[in-house]
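Re: the pair you flagged

First of the two:
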Amino acid sequence: MVRSMTQTRSEYPEPRDRGTSRLLQLPMVGSFLTLCVAHAVSILWLFALPRYQREPFAFRLCCDPWTWYTSKLVVKPRIRVIGRELLPKSWKGYLFVSNHESLVDILLLTKEIRRAFLMKKSVLMSPMGWGTYLSGSVAFDRSSKQERARALRETLEMVKRSMSVVAFPEGTYGHEDGQLRKPHLQLVRQAHEQGIPVVPLGHAGCRRAVDGQTLPLRANTEIALVVRPPVQPDDFEDAEQFATACWDEVKAAVTCARSEIAPGWPYRKSP
């Protein structure tokens, strides 16, 4: 879907051409981090609840408030969602796969998709790391083969028993020119083997808010998120065909999302 108004927009410039890019003020940083720490401490009692039972409840107490005050106080994104009606109603039973552009992806998908993540172990040290873990996210050390295998097993178990999970098959942020990285699709293949549908997602604009995970942060950035229909395992004879089809849907969603925002940096090449 391409809006005609997109064709008349001026091209989004390189960050160095935006001398007035909004840097976070130190008092705002201090206040925000204080709020995050206070929130993290207030939810510690949730660790007493059993895993695979607490996740939807914990999400409402941990992630929903975090996305609200982060959006209102710091990032203030202008988000447009295409295909929201395709999002599954159930908390569990689906694997979501998405492209990866920026630290802001976490805010976007937590706010709009409202599910857990397959994430790096270092995220547990962030202000809301405990909250994401309590809400069903699975953390692992990417440098360990054993850890990666354990994380795949735990992710699919979480999906089946309590909370759907969002995964980034690229493993890290996409290329600076806008091309997606070669995906790691083992988790998607295993989803096929276990009969778990995959919901492809594609978004654009997060890298304009924060380029990867480094400042400056640019508030009020236009972001588009596209949801594609769930891909059903029964429609494919083998796991490889299923995984390829799922990633093709992600790429199509990314292309659509980019058509919904102003052209220009960093999207110099197609996904």
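Second of the two:
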Amino acid sequence: VPAENKVILSNGEIHYDSLILATGAASNYFGLENVKNNSLPMKTMSDALALRNILLQRLEEASRSDSISEKRKLITIVVAGAGPTGVELSGMFAEMKRNIIRKDYPELSGEGLGEIILIDGADAVLSPMSEKSQQYSYKALRRMGVTIKLNVTVKDFVNDTVVLSDGSTIVTKNLICSAGVAAKTFTGF
């Protein structure tokens, strides 16, 4: 009851001076329904666990496939958003590709078989951070084998194809969204 500065709960009442409704955050898909429906979010612990399981499943599928193009599609990873989460994920995937996949899935470690691609609409990785941090991260990721595409955004993700704002496309089953958050809302507010 706002006029009385109180919240009525199922087991009593709480009086307050200020009421803050912290609804939390969710991935922001910027109105792109195909991206929302087909990509892999990375904002919560549940997202991380699901992402791990899906990527392991796709590695297994790729290891059983006889088709080079299908293997490439299953193990190419596109990360949308070059903020802290996207940079961290890209580096981790590059390390996995270089160390774990080479050892545990030698049939998938061929040159050019799968890429790690980091995409961002800004002109730098970690754009809110210092220029020194941006340059260091960019160079470190490139040394690790990450392909970085800046000044470009994801426009669609349909039929296992990421469509970029510059008209180029990337064939993959793995689009990971780490770009932006949106506040969750309650019905009726």
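Residues 93 and 120 are 17 Å apart (CA to CA).

-B.
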